[in-house]
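The material for today's practical consists of a large collection of protein records. Backbone structure tokens are a discrete shorthand for how the chain folds in space. An example says more than a description, so a record of this kind follows:
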Amino acid sequence: MFSHQRVHLLLSSMAVFLLLSACSGTSRVINLGILEMYSDFYNVQIDLPEAVARGQDFEVKVTTYAHTCRERARTDVTIQDMTAVITPYDYEVTYPDGTICNPVISSFEHTATLRFDQVGTATITVRGYSDVQEQAIDVVHIVTVQ
């Protein structure tokens, strides 16, 4: 006969196996973050200063939107001279059992740290996807570096 401890251990192991088996077919595809959805409700939201100090780090916050089957992924940043490009990415998740996502909209905050080492005008481009326009878009901001 099995002891209660062995039965508990066996049942726990089987539960973990079943959970891992169910998740093994889950896939994540990385996509451009959605910057705007449903034109009037979920508009582009980018939080950045109008002026920054030369040689000082500052943050730019970009909001992406998604249905429940998306998760925040990464934020890529490239800086060359006085030009920066910020590209937020989110995962689109699919489940092997055909789970249907709720139509609830969520948002993710992507944060990029930038620094410009020259005085002048800097251009910051946020590259993402527009569900309204059904295409990739660039949103350009000008920042004064003092």
The first strand starts at residue 27 and ends at 32. The longest helix spans residues 4-23. Residues 1-23 have pLDDT under 50 and may be disordered. Residues 51 and 112 are 16 Å apart (CA to CA).
